[in-house]
Specification:
The model has no long low-confidence stretch (mean pLDDT about 90). The protein is about 30% helix and about 20% strand. It has two domains: about 5-45; about 55-140, Alpha-Beta Plaits (2-Layer Sandwich). The protein has a four-stranded antiparallel sheet. Strands 5-6 form a two-stranded antiparallel ribbon. The chain is flat and about 55 Å long. The protein has helices at about 5-15, 20-25, 30-45, 80-90, 115-125, and strands at about 65-75, 95-100, 105-110, 130-140, 145, 150. By secondary structure, the chain is of the alpha+beta class. It is built from five helices and six strands. The termini are far apart.
């Protein structure tokens, strides 16, 4: 295992998951077989967990709303936060779940068509869980940057300046 090669592969794939093995080999001055072996091993070790495409849904006709829900819970004896986290992340509506430091324990990210749909999930599925003490829902109004990518490029004023 070449740790330096692995980190280089990960950095490149994190920026552009569409790079194929041949391109990676050229960029890293390595063989395609060596890159393929390292990538396969990292997938097996669950270092590489998936490949995703970042989509700016605001530029499509699809109605989609993202919400972040703060959740305060009572950790389970002997299990800590893991058991309740598993209950939450197994809901298909949950897109991401993070254990947080600070005033609340979990940040749950959901996507839905309407505020009502997300509110119904929170009130009927999330809040009733035994360990959940409280929730606070925040709706994302606009995304400017996601996964390191600026979604809305700064608009350049192409008008010519007129001076007297």
């Amino acid at each position: 295992m070449n740790q330096e090669l692995r980190e280089s592969i990960l950095k490149l794939l994190e920026k552009n998951s569409r790079l194929d093995l041949k391109e990676l080999a050229v960029l890293l001055d390595s063989t395609e077989a060596e890159i393929a072996n390292e990538v396969a091993e990292m997938e097996k070790e669950h270092i590489i967990c998936g490949y995703h495409t970042l989509i700016n849904w605001d530029h499509t006709s699809r109605e989609q709303l993202t919400a972040m829900i703060e959740v305060k819970v009572t950790p389970q004896r002997g299990e800590g936060f893991d058991k309740i986290a598993e209950r939450i992340y197994n809901f298909p509506e949950v897109k991401a779940l993070y254990l947080m430091s600070g005033a609340y324990d979990f940040m749950v990210m959901l996507e839905g068509k309407t505020m009502k749909e997300i509110s119904m999930f929170t009130s009927s599925k999330l809040a009733p869980l035994e360990a959940v003490l409280s929730t606070a829902t925040h709706f994302v109004l606009k995304k400017y940057k996601d996964h390191g990518t600026v979604l809305e490029a700064k608009k350049v004023d192409k008008r010519q300046a007129v001076t007297p």
